[in-house]
Amino acid sequence: MATPIALAWGSVSVTGNYRENNEDRCFVEPQGRFFLVADGMGGQSAGEKASELAIDLVKERLAKFDFEKADAARATAAIDAAVGHANTEIMALGELEARYRSMGTTIAYVVHGKPGLIVGNVGDSRVYRLRNGQLDRLTKDHSLTQALVDAGTISPEEALTHRYKNVLYKYLGAKEGSQGTEARVIPPHSGDRYLICSDGVTDGLSDSSLVPLLAADGNPQQMAERIVEAALGGGSRDNVTCVVIHVR
């Protein structure tokens, strides 16, 4: 049996004010079994193709797996295998077709199953949790700036405006993309609120400014719409995508 909780959710994905096309994708499994956000890159149609492939291939694999019966080890292995398969296919298409040669994508997810909520990512799309007024980022960016912060070379404040801010060392479309999603199992608590987002959200909003948006009254769809609106108002120059999940 899955953890006896109920989830409610909402999602929004917009092109934004500065881009001509939307390279982001998101997917919510109709029964709330899993939630995905991908942010493609590569220019022209390549970014759109990469994120579309990632979502389609990962959801196809996850839909076939029974997360209500699997322990944490089996569940996380299934997720990593699904993401690794998507990475292999994206790399293969990039080698076959010149127009997709430079494509890649991030992916971030929340999966609901027997162990609880499983979260993870590849790239710099993120998962946050708001619990009792405290916001925690549950994923780690696979960016050069985050690596520099981890090494103590630059401060977190300097990372916000660093020239390598958007350069990733791990994403789907590169061999490192098959090295796992650093999955974490989170015991769900009633009242928790989760946010899965592309970096279009965090380009326009600081972590601290997310707190009142996630803590506000309203259903998850209203909350997702407010977050996207606030990110655009905050100057985000990217596509903006988020999924908001409430635990009841």
Automatic annotation (TrEMBL):
<keyword id="KW-0378">Hydrolase</keyword>
<dbReference type="InterPro" id="IPR036457">
    <property type="entry name" value="PPM-type-like_dom_sf"/>
</dbReference>
<dbReference type="GO" id="GO:0004722">
    <property type="term" value="F:protein serine/threonine phosphatase activity"/>
</dbReference>
<dbReference type="Pfam" id="PF13672">
    <property type="entry name" value="PP2C_2"/>
</dbReference>
<protein>
    <submittedName>
        <fullName>Serine/threonine phosphatase stp</fullName>
        <ecNumber>3.1.3.16</ecNumber>
    </submittedName>
</protein>
<dbReference type="InterPro" id="IPR001932">
    <property type="entry name" value="PPM-type_phosphatase-like_dom"/>
</dbReference>
<dbReference type="InterPro" id="IPR015655">
    <property type="entry name" value="PP2C"/>
</dbReference>
<feature type="domain" description="PPM-type phosphatase">
    <location>
        <begin position="8"/>
        <end position="247"/>
    </location>
</feature>
